[in-house]
Design brief:
single chain, 205 residues, mainly alpha, two-stranded antiparallel sheet, 71% helix
Length: 205
């Protein structure tokens, strides 16, 4: 049964093999969704939509995010508990990525990509005209869609970080406030690193 506790901390209920299988399968499925709906996972907590995405780019994005998260979290885990295993941290990351992997579905028929372009256009025109107000040409349903996407995205971030921390805590036996602070710093470092690496790949492609 999938109760709230299981959804937030499946690491106490399921075996390492089960979680690893689900995490890898979800990563593949999510990367395919991103390819179909033109999404790029260009950061630990980032998703952007483009006109066109090559089939391998979402897979590469997810692999880079995995490595960028794994490096600082494994080092931190070893610092807290020398018995921390790389497989446990990897599994925690794969499971924690799942809430993000369904977000590309919002870009069916280029929906979110068009909204993003309209917002960018309005911001640009406002800046050129020296205006402090933005004039959007979005309809009522489009605004509702944007609000829903923003709400679901925030929920995905919170859920993902909660999953990642619970998985990390299980793997490393993290307990103290200082461990939580170091965990947060590790996530920030991973986000910065992933953005730099992916941005360089995009600019050189």
């Amino acid at each position: 049964m999938f109760g709230p506790k299981t959804l937030l901390n499946p690491f106490e209920r399921y075996t390492e093999g089960q979680l690893l299988t689900v995490g890898i399968s979800a990563g593949i499925a999510g990367s395919l969704l991103a390819y179909v709906f033109n999404g790029r996972f260009d950061g630990v907590v980032d998703l952007h939509f483009l006109h066109q995405v090559a089939w391998h780019e979402p897979f590469t994005d997810n692999l880079i995010v995995l490595i960028c998260l794994l490096a600082p979290l494994l080092l931190l885990g070893k610092y807290i508990n020398s018995k921390t295993r790389i497989i446990d941290i990897t599994t925690a990351i794969l499971i924690a990525r799942i809430p993000f992997l369904v977000l590309p579905l919002f870009n069916i028929n280029g929906y979110m990509q068009r909204l993003a372009e309209e917002i960018t256009r309005s911001v640009g025109e406002g800046a050129m005209n020296g205006s402090t107000t933005l004039e959007f040409t979005l309809g009522g349903m489009e605004m509702v869609g944007l609000i829903v996407f923003a709400g679901v995205s925030i929920l995905a971030v919170v859920w993902s970080i909660t999953l990642l921390y619970n998985g990390f805590k299980t793997a490393s036996n993290a307990k103290t406030i200082s461990h939580k602070v170091l965990f947060a710093l590790a996530i920030i470092a991973a986000e910065m690193l992933s953005k730099i690496v992916i941005l360089k790949m995009i600019t050189h492609s």
